[in-house]
């Protein structure tokens, strides 16, 4: 009997896009973030993608100290692969954004492959009564540009690369794939490239099946067999995009960073609930979730 293809599930447990008064299930404190990551790993996630927040009002916190409490607890309780954000919040400086990964030297760090308009304001329609002023200012800001210039990307590559950290290359549009190709040609990155194509985030490519096909075709042409493909769909697109990509040979990312939902108008009550749904989808296709060590092998991580 042929062995099922192994699918790497990444779970992004809290992020810096959603804010606490949008959903009571969004992890905020270090203990909540640790529990969410450990629960997601138990449910089948091989990789956990981590941001930190101020335990008081939940605003994004990119200080290395804010990550330390939950990193220790997660390492104690799980062998999952840890992926620390270098995106932080799009309003932060590049130096601030890189510091937690530089300090904690994770196996993986996210790396955003291009600058873009970053539209959170459409969420104001769904969440008109945000509690904190900072939430209203942040989500309502129509002038956010997520800065990832070539020099800034190079700064992150040359700061974290020598520490043995590998990257989750976040590509929100076709141009970002070409930017990654540039760094490959320059020898600043090496395969296997873990490419996370992002769909349906305002300012990036849409979430139509044509968009998924287009990004996959472009990545196949630019990188051939030198990359591992993964997808994330923002908001209501999360599970449909995951199902499409799993059927096309891809890996998937879920988690409350990218979507607060488990179904139409239904809040996910935990990250583990989204991971369990993702497992149902891939097992339904005759595939199986990769273990953390299988993911380490597929991604050639330092372990
Ligand atoms: C769409 C995702 N929020 C992309 C992300 O996870 C960015 C990062 O942390 O570097
Ligand atoms: Zn993130």
From TrEMBL:
<dbReference type="InterPro" id="IPR013785">
    <property type="entry name" value="Aldolase_TIM"/>
</dbReference>
<keyword id="KW-0479">Metal-binding</keyword>
<protein>
    <submittedName>
        <fullName>3-keto-5-aminohexanoate cleavage protein</fullName>
    </submittedName>
</protein>
<keyword id="KW-0862">Zinc</keyword>
<keyword id="KW-0808">Transferase</keyword>
<dbReference type="InterPro" id="IPR008567">
    <property type="entry name" value="BKACE"/>
</dbReference>
<dbReference type="Pfam" id="PF05853">
    <property type="entry name" value="BKACE"/>
</dbReference>
